[in-house]
Amino acid sequence: MVNMPYFNLSQQYSDHAYKEISIPPTESGEHKIENNCLHIWPKGTYMLIALPNLDGSFTVTLFCPKNIFDEINTEEKVLEFFNINFPDVVPIADNLVEEFLQNPIGSLCTVKCSPWNNGNATLILGDAAHAIVPFFGQGMNCGLEDVTKLFKVIEEIGLDEGWGPIFEQFSAQRKVDTDCIANMSHDNYIEMCNRVADDHYVWRKQITAILCKQFPTKFLPRYECVSFTSLPYSEAEKRAVINENILDELTKDLVVGDLGIDLQLAQELIDQNLKELDVDRS
Questions:
Q1: Phi-psi sector, 93: left (phi>0), alpha (psi -120 to 50), beta
Q2: pTM of the shown model
């Protein structure tokens, strides 16, 4: 594909990287910290996250600028870094130093290209066509969704004229959404590292939660639109913009911390701007 005329390729490596360590289970095989959530330690330009595993352990990942990894290269520097930035992790990550110094540094890369097909002979899907960074949790799902979208195009066009028209329509339509999730994934990294520790951001999230409870099939955050509906990524992003505009209107006369929004106005704005969605939270 790379040698094909008019094939456009963008491969963008982030200047941030990652490294994994672990929090082992207790002697009885239980999780040492709450296991029904994602743990985030935001630090502005970098973060530590912990994801629970079925065996009682946690996979803990440090995402940060690559130069920081270059500097944390001795036992003393590892302990100093974690004691300063993530002191509550040190007592429960039993093999912190050994794992941190031994485990490899992983890279973060975004791939965008077009077209995804070479006539009617070849079609690429998944990471081959649109690799993304992991901060929306959609990499594998996006690749699998490619297949469902491809089958939909096949049903619409049929095979009478061969694979060429199918590949071309699918490639053009799908790229809009995969470019969108790539951009959202980058944005979510900034949100996880920085915004989650901001009082104004947390306040708006609290109001969002009120609206989600009051209007569960219409007012959905971007993450829920992506994770619990079949809405295309590009449409989820458009709804997220509308959500922010509604929040702006509802909070313009409030101070940070005040949750007394006008629910009648909220219903009017939501009914005017957002359609009902089929939501599956199972």
A1: beta
A2: 0.88
